[in-house]
Design goal:
Adenosylhomocysteinase; 2 domains; Rossmann fold; 8-stranded mixed β-sheet; 419 residues; cytoplasm; alpha/beta; 7-stranded parallel β-sheet; 15 strands; globular
Length: 419
């Protein structure tokens, strides 16, 4: 055996171990897999997926395959792919996976086209790149597509815009909007994994540091909470008055980006919008500030302005680039401004991805059965599926729901009894 074969074998085994390690904490997905092995609800269905290729994602694809589907997977971000997971999916689990960490933009989109060669009946997306590529470059395949699912806030926003413009050609379920997705994945998953990514990349102390969170949606809430829990002095930047007020009452400072940049030791963007850290903020940013992004695309920090302001740059640690400004200040960017929790870490814990990917799996099953009843629009995850996932998760944690009595049900359905 030559060295290349030895390395590949080790990579496959490493990926297999990582996938099984995640599966230990994914009881809901395991439950769906066992049912699907018996029922085969996806027999004859081809599923194309564009997702972060991690150990948790692998368990979703294995589950879809257990349900009888023919599947193919590509990455949804050039720096979020785990090459050992790719190797294991291809060699151990017979899941065709087309992704490589660090690939360039052309290679990234070519792999999406390769996955679309499957001629899918259902698409599973994270960021909507698969769906938009299908609609723009492989239109001849659209007639055979039954439906799709979308995992992220950013992707759902794009798809709703497509539907508004009458450009969306098949129904899509907004998995991100399920309560058992965004309330847990976005908040607890993003919170923990973002802090983990920053710590792995920098090994700097958060306690006492000025930590700025840009955006106070579910992801921003989680990051702010976890940073505060580690002793950071957290400031929230928001454009929405209600969310800003919520952040203030949650105990955080609220300020403009201009003011926050001047004292920030860490800045994390999580808005889904463009240039929320712009040139005017970089002009006054605190010397030594660590910049990172937890939004889906690398557009939240104005990278072009950062390059133009820089007289010298170098990699100072894995996944950390130092930018030296012409006035002597330095700032540090983690993971090229891409998702910090996946470029510098392993992504969300399996415990929360269990719920997110269970939503994906059950939504795929729902589309396979009910697609004829759905118009070309964006739909929420059916409430009964959302609730079933919550119940299965609680049961796996050894917890039990209280039950309403008949008297209580009658009372809640009546109006006669008052003060």
């Amino acid at each position: 055996m030559d060295m290349t074969e030895k390395i590949n074998t080790e990579l496959v085994e490493q990926g297999k171990n990582k996938i099984m390690w995640a599966r230990n904490k994914m009881p809901v997905i395991r439950n769906i897999s066992e049912r699907w092995k018996r029922e085969q609800p996806l027999a004859g269905i081809r599923v194309a997926a564009c997702l972060h290729v991690t150990s948790k994602t692998a368990n979703l694809l294995i589950t879809l395959k257990d349900g009888g589907a023919e599947v193919a997977l590509c990455g949804s971000n050039p720096l979020s792919t785990q090459d050992d997971v790719v190797a294991a999916l291809n060699e151990v689990y017979d899941v065709p996976t087309h992704a490589k960490r660090g690939e360039d933009k052309d290679s990234f989109y070519n792999r999406i086209l390769t996955v679309l060669d499957l001629q899918p009946h259902i698409t599973v997306d994270d960021g909507a790149d698969l769906i938009t590529t299908l609609h723009s470059q492989r239109k001849e395949l659209l007639d055979s597509v039954l439906g799709g699912t979308e995992e992220t806030t950013t992707g759902v926003t794009r798809l709703k815009a497509m539907a508004k413009d009458n450009y969306l050609k098949y129904p899509v379920i907004a998995v991100n909007d399920a309560m058992t997705k965004h309330m847990f994945d976005n908040r607890y998953g993003t919170g923990q994994s973002t802090i983990d990514g920053i710590m792995r990349a920098t090994n700097y102390l958060l306690a006492g540091a000025h930590f700025v969170v840009v955006g106070y949606g579910w992801c921003g809430r989680g990051i702010a909470k976890d940073a505060s829990g580690m002793g950071a002095r957290v400031t929230v930047v928001e454009v929405d008055s209600v969310r800003a007020l919520e952040a203030a009452l949650d105990g955080f400072e609220v300020s403009s980006m201009d003011e926050a940049a001047e004292k920030a030791d860490f800045i994390v963007t999580t808005t889904g919008n463009k240039n929320v850290v712009d040139k005017k903020h970089l002009d006054k940013i605190n010397d030594g500030c660590i910049l990172s992004n937890a939004g889906h695309f690398n557009v939240e920090i104005n990278l072009q302005a950062l390059e133009e302001m820089t007289k010298e740059q170098r990699e100072v640690r894995p996944d950390v680039q130092e930018y030296s400004f012409k006035d002597g200040r330095k700032v540090y960017l983690i993971g090229e401004g891409r998702l910090v929790n996946l470029t510098a870490g392993e992504g969300h814990p399996a415990d929360v991805m269990d719920m997110s990917f269970s939503n994906q799996a059950l939504s795929v099953e729902y589309l396979a059965k009910e697609h004829e009843q759905l118009a070309k629009d964006v739909y929420p995850v059916p409430r009964h599926l959302d609730e079933s996932i919550a119940k299965l998760k609680l049961k796996s944690m050894g917890m039990e729901l209280e039950q309403l009595t008949d008297e209580q049900i009658d009372y809640l359905n009546s109006w006669e009894i008052g003060t």
